[in-house]
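Quarterly update from the structural biology core.
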Amino acid sequence: MNICLIYGGRSGEHEISLISASSIARGFSKEDNITLIGISKDGKWYLQDNSEYERICKDEKAVFQITEDDSKAVTVIPGGKKNCLAVNGKTLNIDVVFPALHGTYGEDGTIQGLFEMADIPYVGCSHISSAITMDKEKTKMIWQSAGLPVVPYVCMKRSVMLDSVVYDAFIEATEKELGDYPMFVKPCCAGSSNGASKAKNRRELCFALMEAFQWDDKVLIEKSINAREVECSVTGNSVTYPADSDTEEVVAYIPGEIAPSHTFYDFDAKYNDPEGAKLLIPAELSENDLEKIRKTAVAAYKVLDATGLSRVDFFIDRDTKAVYLNEINTLPGFTPISMFPKMCDAAGLKFNDLIALLLDEAVCRYNAKNSLNTSR
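Predicted structure, tokenized:
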């Protein structure tokens, strides 16, 4: 198979993408032909030398670097199919794209829409599902409409921040709606806890909002609960999978639990501090509760028409034992400490087999969609 691995990107998670891509690259079959494309922080695409792939495969701790060589700038050909990517007018032979991208311009539907226009199979959710799930407010609204539980929240738009009278009234209404502090503040469309913080009073809430609005034009304010953080990996095609297809069947794996040593599971705890959190797989729950998490994760995945893969995140209230959906990550981390591949592995799906499954599912989904009529 001719695989194009794309990483980097114009995102606050650029560096995490490089780590994820390095792990994914080592999971490819040695029989596959691998093409590497690195996206710089300003959004330019560059073909990378084959020696970079060899370097990563030889060293388990190595991380991709992006060489920005203008002579190897990549262009995209709409409708080009296998030959949709080109360098200096010479097309590359690609069967499927694996975007190891996180956050803005990576899992928000933009690059997925580009792949759709190029007419090439790609790993992960469709452009529509990617766009919806990147927006935490819209995701919660859909889950609520399906009767799925979410933490009480309020969404503030930038326009509110620009009018002091409206802002003051909004803060008072939010305090009345959500109750006592603390509250969590997070950008609607940012990942890896970028711009997220915990506010213990109104003063801290105002500072938290200013920080969050550095990352997005919409911000969520959520009721703080004394919660355990549980996650569940899901794979499969929730839209068109045949009943007899092991490749496309929607499967939820063994849930895991995050026990952060920080105030909450922030960016540093996730990626910088080796002692930032304990990862417990399986989560310390009864079999009935583990099954409840799996079933809810599948329901949350399906109602969003997710495909490929996702990590569904939950809160469990320590006081009431209530289970809440937190968010869904449609291109979760593949770093050595990332929960998504670890939960799959705990269920018996080894890393290399997981990579192969995701590639096969991408091709199956493309073939199913390609059989539809687009004109008369």
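The first helix runs from residue 14 to 26.
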